[in-house]
Structure formats: structure tokens, C-alpha cells
């Protein structure tokens, strides 16, 4: 084999070095291009929107966790105190992490397992805390309510809280219709513009409460299976004739004085307010409707 002259061997070495530099530069450019694509993909509008929604949900959950609740007064009533709600957690929320392997592969490849684990580690407890019912001191409710007799029309002569009724100019009226083990609820009032406002919902009985504790929901029927939207409705006082009733929420933030007629006797109202005050409701903030006499 003929040996290459020294100058030819030097040329080959120079050519090899140039090729190595070109290949290195190509790899560097490919790395920069890949990094740019990842940044653009991570900053796509839908991802930014999802991050914004996540921050809003986390903020709402944190606000709910730190929001102070009113301190109740000493419990006093005509019936033994009963729990105001199960207040239990939502164990199914903890199973959200098991959904990760079930997601489509194209979704999982777009997300970092470490980031998903961090989001679940922080987000799941927040969501669980958000959905969990607070535990308030129990209210003393009546022993038993005959829902068939309780059904019909009730006039709201006074209330505490219920900001959604602030726009009502006329005396709010609620009608209950039996529907199996539940009550269909229909609230009506007339606003300042003269238009009638109607809200329809359903009330379900809390088991073991003697029908004195219910939960009402005004969300669409297809959302009733979710743990959201159900609010406590507890009957604290009810006369034998089912003509007047006192209904409250265990948070002590909402209270209703109901009567079959728009006008209630002053002594009857005073007796109901004494019961409410004994249960820790701030009756001095009670709003009396001008049409209630």
C-alpha cells in the first residue's frame, strides 16, 4: 500500500476536525430549536388559561380554609341538639391521583410526572378541604316533622343573611310540594322592577333527623349527584298547627321566620326570636319585612 504524503495526511486531519466542528454546531442548533419548541408549547394559550384557573381555584380554596366563622352562643332550645351535617371529608378526592395512568398517552407525554405529582400533592388537599362541609356546633331542632303537613305555602316575615333575597321588594313566598321522600321547593318574590323572581329547587331529608333537618339545592337536577350546592335547612321551632316555623343554618349566618300568613303575632315572633338567640343567632341583625305587619 502506498503511503500518503505528509501534506495529504495533514489535509485529512484538518478535514476531519472541520467535520467534527460542523456536527457539534448542528447538535447545538438542534438543542436550541428543541428548547424553543418546548417553551412555546408550555406557554400556549390553553396552558396559560389552565394555570390561571388553577390559581383561582387554589386561591378560593385557601380563602375558604382561612375564612373565620361566627362564634355561636350557648345552645338552648326545645329539643335535644342534633348534628348539623355529617361534615365528613371527601375520600374520593384522594383517588384523583390514580387517574394519571388512565389518561391518554399523548396527554401524559406532554406533562412532566414531577409537575403532576406536585400539583396533585398540593391541589388534592385544597380541593378536599374546599368540598368538605365545615363542622359547626349542632342546633337544637324539633323532634319530628310531618312533611305532608309542612308542605304548602309559607311567607317569610323575617330573615337573617340570604343576600340572594336582597333584591326582593315584596314579601318572599315559598311553596313546598311533596315528591316521594323529598320536597320540591319554589321561592317567589317581586323585585324593584316589578318582575317576579322565581327560584326552584329540591329538599332532601337528612337520615335519622326525624325530618327536622333537610338539605336544599337550587342547582340544575343533573348536578344533584355532586356534593356541591346542598345547603343545610334545619327546623328549630314549629307549632302544633304548623302555622309558624323557625328555620336556621348551623353556621348561625342564616335564619328565617316563616308563617302561613303574611302577618305574625308580636308575641309569637318574640318567642321565636328567643329560641334563635338561645341558639347563638345574632337576632339584632334580623331583617323584618315591611309587609309582615
Overview of this structure, please?
This protein folds into 2 domains: 54-60 and 74-131, no CATH class; 139-292, Lipocalin (Beta Barrel). The longest helix is centred in the first third of the chain and has 37 residues, at 6-42. It contains 6 helices and 11 strands. The strands form 2 sheets. It has an 8-stranded antiparallel β-barrel. The chain has 293 residues and is an alpha+beta fold. Keywords: Lipoprotein. This is Apolipoprotein D and lipocalin family protein. InterPro entries: Calycin (IPR012674), Lipocalin_bac (IPR002446), Lipocalin_Blc-like_dom (IPR047202), Lipocalin_CS (IPR022272), Lipocln_cytosolic_FA-bd_dom (IPR000566). Residues 145-289 form the Lipocalin/cytosolic fatty-acid binding domain.
Rounded mean pLDDT is 75
CATH architecture of the largest domain: Beta Barrel
Q: Strand pairing plus helix content: what structural class?
A: alpha+beta
Q: Report the biggest beta sheet as strand number plus sense, adding barrel if it closes.
A: 8 strands, antiparallel, barrel
Q: For this structure, what is the CATH class of the largest domain? A: Mainly Beta
Strand order of the largest sheet: 3-4-5-6-7-8-9-10
CATH superfamily of the largest domain: Calycin beta-barrel core domain
Query: Order of helices and strands, N to C?
Result: HHEHHEHEEEEEEEEHE
- For this structure, the CATH topology of the largest domain is Lipocalin
Principal-axes geometry comes out as rod-shaped
State the separation between the terminal residues, measured CA to CA: 122 Å
Number of domains: 2
Q: How many individual helices?
A: 6
Strand tally: 11
Strand content: 15-25%
Give unreliable regions as ranges. Answer: 65-90
**Measured on Cα atoms, how large is the radius of gyration?**
32 Å
> Helix amount, in percent?
25-40%
Protein name: Apolipoprotein D and lipocalin family protein
Keywords: Lipoprotein
InterPro entries: Calycin, Lipocalin_bac, Lipocalin_Blc-like_dom, Lipocalin_CS, Lipocln_cytosolic_FA-bd_dom
Domain Lipocalin/cytosolic fatty-acid binding: 145-289
